Amino acid sequence: MYSAMAKNPQKPVIYQQVVEKLKSDASITAIAKEHAITRQTVYRIKKELEN
């Protein structure tokens, strides 16, 4: 799972990059393609930020 506290050392880095892209209003699809993750994952991260 991609989160700031993930055990895999790459996942927190990708998580932070996704957060930055979301803050800059990049599209969900573009973020997912750029980081080779699913749109569902991007939506989950976006939902976490809204809470």
Query: What is the level 1 CATH name?
Result: Mainly Alpha
Strand residue content:
under 5%
- Give the mean pLDDT: 95
What does the overall shape look like? Answer: globular
Count the DSSP helices: 3
Largest sheet: none
Q: Ranges with pLDDT <50 over ≥5 residues?
A: none
Strand segment tally: 0
Task: Determine the structural class based on helices, strands and strand pairing.
Answer: mainly alpha
Give the % helix.
Answer: 55-70%
Q: What is the fourth-level CATH superfamily?
A: Homeodomain-like
Radius of gyration: 10 Å
Q: What would you say the CATH architecture is?
A: Orthogonal Bundle
CATH topology: Arc Repressor Mutant, subunit A
Whole-number tally of structural domains = 1
C-alpha end-to-end distance:
18 Å
User: H/E element string?
Assistant: HHH
Produce a short descriptive summary.
With 51 residues, the chain is mainly α.
